[in-house]
Amino acid sequence: MKKPFQSYAAGLIKVQKIIDKGSDLVKYFILLCFVFSLVTFAQDKKEVSFSKDLIPLFKAKCFRCHEQDEENPNDFSMDTYDLLIKGGKTKNMIVPGKGSESYLIIKLLPNPPKGAQMPVFSKKKLPEDEVDLIKRWIDQGAKNN
Ligand code: HEC
């Protein structure tokens, strides 16, 4: 039979091991959080390209109704940089450096002040990451890049 002291010591060692394992987990967790925040930070800093990132998105979801068409003039065309910057009837379409004040972004969010949330007549509105991509491009100065 073990002496009480021995089992007490064995118990302590066990507890120590559990704490050690736990603190390893905590370390991994902190490391993971750090890596994750670095990745999102890097993504935030990455420059959004008008031609490579936005045109394909607009083409898939907006050109159907907002492409310049000689026969069927559109109030708001977004198929070239100049047309997009020029905007439509509503002012402040693009406010460089201020995505959240730009009407283009306001129109992509629920309950815009005028008309419908874009893309209109579509059950699938833009997912948050796509709105965020456009917003980041404006925040970064809305460059013709
Ligand atoms: C099915 C056709 C359709 C699609 C697709 C569509 N729109 Fe529209 N859009 C309209 C119509 C119609 C209006 C005018 C009525 C209104 O403002 O709700 C409009 C108006 C707008 C306006 C306001 C223009 C102004 O000067 O007031 C913006 C900004 C806009 N759309 C952005 C977009 C974006 C960005 C997409 C793609 C994600 C998109 N739309 C997709 C039909 C469409």
Question: What does this protein look like?
Answer:
- The structure is a single chain.
- With 145 residues, the chain is mainly alpha-helical.
- It folds into 2 domains: 1-46; 50-139, no CATH class.
- It has helices spanning 4-45, 50-61, 63-66, 81-86, 103-106, 128-139.
- Helix 2 (50-61) packs across helix 6.
- The longest helix is centred in the first third of the chain and has 42 residues, at 4-45.
- The mean pLDDT is 88.
- Heme C binds next to helix 3 and helix 5.
- Heme C binds at residues 61-62, 64-66, 75-76, 87-90, 103-104, 107-108, 114-116, 118-121, 126.
Bound molecules: heme C
Q: Could you list the spans in which at least 5 consecutive residues all have pLDDT below 50?
A: none
Number of helices: 6
* Terminal Cα span: 79 Å
Number of β-strand runs: 0
Largest sheet: none
What percent of residues adopt helix (DSSP H or I)?
A: 55-70%
User: Any idea how many domains?
Assistant: 2
Radius of gyration: 27 Å
Question: β content, as a range?
Answer: under 5%
Order of helices and strands: HHHHHH
Structural class: mainly alpha
The overall average pLDDT, rounded, is 88
Q: What gross morphology would you assign? A: rod-shaped
Give a brief description.
The protein is an all-alpha fold and 145 residues long. The chain is built from six helices and no strands. The protein has two domains: 1-46; 50-139, no CATH class.
Using brief descriptors, characterize the structure shown.
145 residues; mainly alpha; 2 domains; 6 helices; rod-shaped; binds heme C
